[in-house]
Amino acid sequence: MDRKTHKLMTNRTLHRRANVARQYLQRNEGGRGLQSAEETIRTEEHGLSDYIKNDEKGYNRLLKRLTKTRSKSEYQNRQKETKEKDWKEKALHGQYAKIADKTDIKRNCKWIKNGYMKKETEGLITAAQDQALPTRWRKVKIEKQSGTSLCRVYNERDETTFHILSKCSKIAQTEYKRRHDKLAQLVHWNLCKRCRLQHERNWYDHTAEKGLENENVKIFQPDIIVKDKGNEPYLDNRHSNARGCKNRRKGEEYRKISEHCRDISRLWMTSTNVVAVIVGALGTVVRLEEF
Ligand SMILES: [Zn+2]
Fold this sequence. Notes:
The protein is mostly helical. Helices cover 50% and strands 9% of the residues. The protein contains 13 helices and five strands. The strands form two sheets. It has a three-stranded antiparallel β-sheet, with no helix packed on it. A two-stranded parallel ribbon has the order 4-5. The chain is extended. Zinc ion is lined by residues 151, 153-154, 156-157, 163, 168, 170.
């Protein structure tokens, strides 16, 4: 039955090379939340055995002595551990799981748990996280096909999922910039909403106007700066790749932001507060203190 379900899903919602065990993990743990038919039956069997073991009356006392199976919760925990182990210990599939674990797995999986994306999109993103997409590097190095493993856009580096997502210099000024601007648009829309400034109903229809102002705040563009009557926070938005910023880049970014902050403090004669918005291309959320 599980095999049939899996076959049916690979038509549209599940990438055929994505991790199978991960599909059966709960959504807030990074899985897709599928119920395994076999596991459901086994869980119920263990539940029934729990009932027999805990019932002190009549024949059940005798049965209790005879039944020596694991409890339902023990069985469920063991199944969960096995699935997590399968996902995390695979060389390719496990890379994202390890990164997500190092940050905040619950926050990183919020988008899967909320389930507002189409199942096809969800399948594509989880496949990219599992590095299951048919990149040239995968075809040559993993599937041992002939040809080159170099990036098809610029031929400069290996065409891995991470390279396409955030390291290809050829698309930095187009796709990466567009992605950055989209994120800035969302941050700007949320700020306008919170500060009761003019904004569209949906964030994706919002166009960030240069210099919006009301009696309480003023929001500047393109670096998003919020000037408040009480406090004067400076808000900057960045994004990094799924592996997180490299230390060298982190230092550079930090230096640039600090300099910018000092300039603003000097110009407006006020204190400033930086809010760094860091989101990985595959949805990894980094805690501020990790930056
Ligand atoms: Zn490239």
